[in-house]
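Hi F.,

I've been meaning to write this up properly since the lab meeting, where we talked about keeping a consistent format for the predictions we share between groups. The idea is simple: the sequence comes first, exactly as it goes in, then the structure tokens exactly as they come out, then a line or two of notes. No screenshots and no reformatting. I'm using this chain as the first example so we have something concrete to point to.
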Amino acid sequence: MNYLELFNYYHNQEKKLEKVLFKNKVIIISDKTRSFYYLLEKNKDIRKNLINAANTIYFNENNDALERNFSTDCQS
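Output, unedited:
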């Protein structure tokens, strides 16, 4: 699974994440695990900005933006 697929689980359409279906198995999420929903609840003053950023970077398949903003390469 790549990080974009993982982010899709984390995002969960901005809803509270209680369980995940992964490889035909239901995984119950711990109450201590926080999804995108909790980030939005904690930051209500910038909620729209967080949603717009997630939609622009992750869901519009803007690969150029992803490469500019995120990297797994530690070399300078």
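Notes:
The first strand starts at residue 19 and ends at 22.
Residues 53 and 59 are 10 Å apart (CA to CA).

If this format works for you, I'll send the rest the same way.

G.
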